[in-house]
Specification:
about 20% strand, 10 helices, about 300 residues, 11 strands, alpha/beta
């Protein structure tokens, strides 16, 4: 019999946490797979503890409550890893709902003994209709990621596939080989964890059948939110490349190749910023390229200052 621990960090989202756990209760359970859910309460001030107690009392699946006072998702995930015992460790978020075959897909994938980890896709659950100005190329910033209908293996550190930490599973030995999530990152930690898995020599695969519904609230569908996320995303890319110099060509700690291609894209998009009859999504994509570059500069300046302060 195989064992699977599902780590579910949560902070002040009691209502969506309930929906997330209940979706796991509703999954079809493969024979020979023993399942436990570990909810890591990351210092919540709402009714998270009471909700978890109610879910645990239902007896649908074993639910373990763990309190972690130190704030931060990577910290909460590491606390869950430390409390886990399963041969397989799954990573799940409190604003998601699993498809009914989620557990079956996991069991099938890990029947391949050579596989170290898998990740899947986020299917959007739009709580309000997406705006016309939202570029299709930026869906990842609001939490919608889909690498297509075909399975793909993680081949190299820079092949474009990203470990999606809200919908992923790894063998225990793979997780322990990485030392867990990097707590120095506050954004981009899932992607960096995937790099650590690959560096540890673990074979990874994108499995399109591994699907979760991801709630996309109205608060994520504002221009201000996407600007901020674009900046945070590229600031994190700078910091990751400084720790992983093989990902880029660095000059004084600045990722030259990444900046070069972003700058070329921005120059190509300048007509969209100037034109009045341009599609609103195309215009906003052009603007976000500027915020990408600004985020890279912000990340570089902050990391440079950190080095000077040491």
């Amino acid at each position: 019999m195989s064992t699977l621990d599902i780590i579910l960090p949560s902070f002040n989202r009691a209502a969506s946490l309930r929906r997330a756990v209940e979706s796991l209760f509703g999954c079809r359970r493969p024979a020979g797979l023993q399942i436990r859910i570990i909810v890591v309460d990351n210092n919540s001030t709402d009714s998270t503890r009471q909700v978890v107690a109610h879910l645990a009392a239902s007896g649908m699946l074993p639910v373990h409550y763990l309190f972690e006072a130190r704030q931060g998702k990577p910290i909460a995930i590491n606390a869950g890893i430390a409390a886990s015992e399963g041969e397989l460790i799954a990573f799940f978020d409190d604003d998601e709902r699993a498809f009914p075959d989620w557990l079956e897909v996991i069991a099938t994938a890990f029947s391949d003994p050579a596989l170290g980890f898998i990740t899947g896709r986020y299917v959007p659950d739009w709580l309000v209709p997406p705006p016309a100005w939202l570029p299709a190329t930026r869906m990842g910033l609001v939490g919608v990621v889909d690498y297509g209908e075909h399975a793909n293996d993680f081949v190299s550190l820079s092949d474009g596939l990203v470990f999606l930490g809200g919908n992923a599973v790894a063998r225990r030995q793979a997780v322990l080989a990485t030392g867990g999530y990097s707590e120095w990152l506050t954004y981009g930690d899932d992607a960096e964890f995937g790099l650590k898995l690959m560096r540890a020599g673990m074979a990874g695969r994108y499995v399109p059948a591994l699907r979760v519904h991801h709630e996309i609230p109205a608060s994520r569908l504002t221009r201000a939110y996407l600007r901020r996320r674009a900046m945070m995303n590229h600031a994190a890319k700078v910091r990751i490349r400084q720790r992983w110099p093989e990902l880029d060509q660095l000059t004084f700690g600045f990722p030259v190749r990444l900046a070069y291609y972003r700058l070329l894209a921005l120059l190509s998009a300048m007509p969209a910023l100037a034109g009045r009859r341009v599609d609103p999504a195309e215009r906003f994509e052009a603007e976000l390229l500027f915020w990408d570059l600004w985020g890279m500069l912000s990340g570089w300046f902050s990391s440079s200052n950190d080095r000077l302060m040491r």
